[in-house]
């Protein structure tokens, strides 16, 4: 199945850090923007961050701005989400999605029937 795969989730303490990875080995990654999303229990999925195909554009949700950093390595077909100063409200399943275009336009509106979604990785922030 053509899909990326997330890894790096786990348990972190408030104020701690985690680095999520999105492996897109079956994609020509330099052709696609990539979004990171999360879904907490009982809540709608939300867009967290996005990086354009060339990495010239990055976009962040207000809730994570200044704490999360998205990056990519097209040669290795990897995308990363560095999460610092984690808060309990960051607890969620995190997903990466290979978008159907090079930019980040409307990435927050992407639904599961668009792009290519990974199975997700759980992030839990708790003391």
Question: What's the arrangement of secondary structure elements?
Answer:
Elements: E1 5-7, E2 10-12, E3 18-23, E4 34-39, E5 46-51, E6 58-60, E7 68-73, E8 78-83, E9 92-98, E10 116-117, E11 121-125
Parallel strand pairs: 2-11
Antiparallel strand pairs: 1-3, 3-8, 4-5, 4-9, 5-6, 7-8, 9-10, 9-11
In short:
By secondary structure, the protein is mostly beta strands. The chain is built from no helices and eleven strands.
The largest pleated sheet is described as: 7 strands, mixed
Low-confidence stretches: none
What is the tally of beta strands?
11
Which series of helices and strands comes N to C?
EEEEEEEEEEE
N-end to C-end Cα span: 37 Å
Number of helical stretches of at least 4 residues:
0
- What would you call the structural class? mainly beta
Task: Kindly report the average pLDDT value.
Answer: 96
For the CA atoms, what is the radius of gyration? 13 Å
| Proportion of residues in helical segments | under 10%
Strand content: 35-45%
- How would you describe the shape? globular
């Amino acid at each position: 199945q053509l899909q990326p795969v997330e890894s790096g989730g786990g348990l972190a303490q408030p104020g701690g850090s985690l680095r999520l990875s999105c492996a897109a080995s079956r994609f020509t990654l330099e052709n696609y923007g990539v979004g990171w999303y999360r879904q907490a229990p009982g809540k709608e999925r939300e867009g967290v961050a996005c990086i354009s195909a060339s990495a010239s554009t990055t976009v962040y949700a207000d809730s994570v701005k200044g704490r999360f950093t998205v990056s990519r390595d097209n040669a290795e077909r990897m995308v990363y989400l560095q999460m610092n100063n984690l808060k309990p409200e960051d607890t969620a399943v995190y997903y990466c999605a290979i978008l159907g275009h090079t930019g980040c336009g409307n990435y927050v509106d992407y639904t599961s029937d668009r792009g290519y979604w990974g199975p997700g990785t759980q992030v839990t922030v708790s003391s």
